[in-house]
Design brief:
Length: 679
């Protein structure tokens, strides 16, 4: 049974399961009336009619759920109005609204280049990214839907079969229609931001439609639809886990498969009944069919209960088994696994030593103990190194990722202070075995990474030059050469060409890069053999760059030399200057994305990396900046972040949408130092 239990040992899959179960129950209540009244087209139209509201909310930086509710409510109101027009059939009115709302949404999206990912999420959702607050919201929505269903049952029933009779009985069919549309709006709007419109519509129609083959009583259809939706959720998550398919789409496909299975079963049952009519033993055959249906029903109930108990079994107690992989896989003590990155900003105030951690997902600001004499900050993707005079405090940000090559795990936990390193750390890089902290005196302190992950600071040897962990070895810049050393610091290979006056260093997916006096040295590894190639600087540029700026792992780097931005594309092995300058900060998210620069006037610019043409600019609210204390410009796969020390705030920039300021985070400290972790 490991194949069945294993997926639900992971926290984010457990949340996806409960989210899917709540959506199944919510959609069963509304979907039953959709199927009984033949409102499937209306359900689909309302699901996709939310797009304009979601688009407007995203463009204004508002709440997507609120935008969806407003748009779906407008759609429902439009349907109510057009349904009174005798010249138009109901389907025609719904079709007009459907096309109109969808067209408005597409027009809004076409005005923004950043909506490709958001639109995918709107259509297909990300059930694996379900958060605890999403579950709470769905639980509240389910409670409201239950109240609407119970109070409006008689009116809904009369409306479904004979509106004139409903009017005669004083059940107010128009009010019942509005209440039914409200129930449908609630189910769709409450569920789409968790599972997307595809899964909402799949669970809204398929399980109730399957249930109608088994019973004709409305309460039983609702109950059975919830069971079928739950079965589709559990089976879809298991299939998705083992087959590597999209979870939401797999659940929707499973729900549709259950419908066709129910339809085939009903057809077979009808054939058996028909074949036994008029012959001997007809009564016994009918009794056999009825008995078989009862046994099948009981079996389905047992299977459903067993499948729904799977996550409980997965969560309860110790299994007694030892994890097969040495690298954390699905479980890390004291941490919670998530389906997507959980980025955080570690912020610090030089003057006061105050430290804050800004969670970019929850927007929570976590206060840390101050570090007196704080001068600079570095990070290795998880740990922040807060350097003061003579010592560096190592802070676990509580957000990190584990890359297994073919897939990635994301984790979040409470931040914690680990300890202090002797010396002032200016940069840091690490892999699963060792963390290399480069000090101001150009030596490198090695730290046991596995012990660090357990909360213990275990120091290793101190190397004479800047070092990088790469390819299971250490690359050390020493005496004008890059040496390849083993984990025990034993020499393995000396690389040519040399690297005089090494400056910054970093690791990309295509190799390790050192900044040297005459260019960048790119080191690559294959089958434990290392090779190096020099990429000379553009004409007129001399001296090594002190730091590379880029998205972690990206193979496109930016260096700021002589107040201008230089872009190094590792794939092309070439530098190119970008923008006219002078530049106080620059970075890029990687191949195919614009290069971002910030000038002394506080204007953010974006440039096409191929042509060098400016693609946009925006003056930041912070205004002119001090070139002696330039702001920090960070970038990840979706957003860029600029600190505003004078205004005590952080600006989140949507660089794919005309440098739009997506969010602004106000702080109680002066955030003049900043790093990002969790990517």
């Amino acid at each position: 049974m490991d194949w069945l239990i294993a997926p639900f040992e992971v926290t984010f899959v457990q949340r996806a399961l409960w989210g899917g179960l709540l959506v199944s129950c919510l959609c069963a209540l509304a979907g039953t009336w959709v199927v009984v009244r033949g409102m499937a087209f209306l359900g689909e139209a309302m699901a996709h009619g939310m797009l304009p509201g979601v688009a407007v909310a995203a463009l204004l930086g508002g709440n997507l759920l609120l935008g969806a509710v407003v748009s779906a409510s407008a759609m429902a109101a439009g349907v109510s109005v057009l349904s009174r027009n005798r010249r138009l059939s109901t389907d025609t009115g719904i079709g007009l609204l459907f096309v109109g709302m969808l067209a408005i949404g597409v027009i809004l999206i076409s005005r923004s280049r950043s909506f490709a990912v958001d639109l995918t999420g709107f259509l297909f959702g990300d059930v694996l990214a379900t958060r605890p607050r999403d579950l709470l919201f769905l639980l509240v929505a389910l409670g409201v839907a239950l109240v609407l269903t119970v109070l409006g049952h008689r009116a809904f029933l009369a409306l479904a079969f004979d509106p004139r009779t409903a009017h005669t009985l004083g059940l107010h069919p128009r009010r019942a229609q509005i209440a039914l549309l409200a129930l449908l709006t609630l189910a769709i709007a409450a569920s789409f931001h968790v599972v997307g419109t595809l899964l909402v519509f799949g669970l809204l129609v398929a399980p109730p439609a399957a249930a109608t083959y088994c019973t004709h009583r409305i309460p039983r259809i609702m109950l059975l639809a919830a069971v079928f939706g739950a079965l589709a959720t559990v089976a879809g998550l298991v299939i998705s886990w083992h087959a590597g398919t999209a979870a939401g789409a797999t659940i929707a496909a499973t729900a549709v498969a259950i419908f066709f299975a129910a339809a085939a079963g009903a057809r077979l049952r009808t054939a058996l009944r028909g074949g036994s009519r008029g012959g001997p033993g007809t009564g016994r055959a009918s009794g056999l069919v009825r008995g078989t249906r009862k046994r099948v029903g009981r079996a389905v109930g047992v299977i459903a209960a067993a499948l729904l108990l799977v996550p409980v079994a997965a969560c309860g107690g110790e299994t007694g088994e030892t994890p097969a992989e040495p690298v954390p896989h699905g479980y890390v003590a004291g941490a919670e696994e998530s389906a997507s990155a959980q980025p955080r900003l570690v912020l610090a105030d030089r003057s006061s030593g105050a430290v804050r951690i800004l969670d970019l997902v929850t927007e929570e600001v976590i206060t840390q103990d101050p570090v007196p004499g704080l001068a600079q900050i570095a990070d290795d993707g998880r740990y922040a190194y807060l350097a003061a005079s003579g010592a560096t405090t190592v802070l676990d940000s509580g957000s990190w990722m584990v890359d297994h090559g073919d897939h990635v795990h994301y984790y979040r936990a409470a931040p914690r202070r680990i300890g202090a390193l002797p010396g002032s750390v200016r940069s840091a890089h690490s892999d699963t075995a060792v963390a290399a902290a480069v000090l101001d005196n150009r030596s490198t302190a090695l730290v046991d990474r596995s012990a660090l992950d357990e909360g213990t600071l275990t120091l290793g040897p101190v190397l004479d030059g800047p070092a990088l962990p790469y390819g299971g070895h250490l690359l050390v810049a020493d005496t004008g050469r890059i040496q390849v050393r083993g984990r025990e610091n034993a020499p393995v290979q000396t690389l040519e060409p040399g690297c005089d006056r090494p400056g910054g260093q970093t690791v990309t997916r295509r190799g390790a890069v050192f900044s040297c006096a005459d260019g960048a040295l790119v080191v690559t590894e294959r089958d434990d053999r290392f090779t190096a190639a020099k990429v000379p600087y553009p004409a007129g540029t001399t001296g090594s760059s002190g730091q590379f700026f880029h998205r972690r792992g990206s193979d496109v780097l930016v260096a700021v030399r002589d107040s201008r931005a230089l872009v190094l594309d590792i794939a092309d092995r070439a530098w190119r200057p970008i923008g006219p300058g002078p530049v106080v900060a620059a970075t890029t998210a990687g191949a195919g994305t614009d290069v971002l620069t910030l000038d002394a006037g506080g204007v953010l610019h974006s440039y096409d990396p191929e042509t060098g043409a400016e693609t946009g600019h925006r003056a930041l609210p912070s205004g002119p900046v001090d070139p002696a204390k330039p702001p920090v410009l960070l970038v990840d796969a979706e957003r860029a972040y600029v600190n505003d020390p004078a205004g005590r705030r952080i600006h989140e920039i949507d660089y794919a949408d005309g440098l739009r300021i997506a969010r602004t985070f106000d702080l109680d400290i002066t955030p003049d130092l900043m790093v990002e972790t969790g990517r």
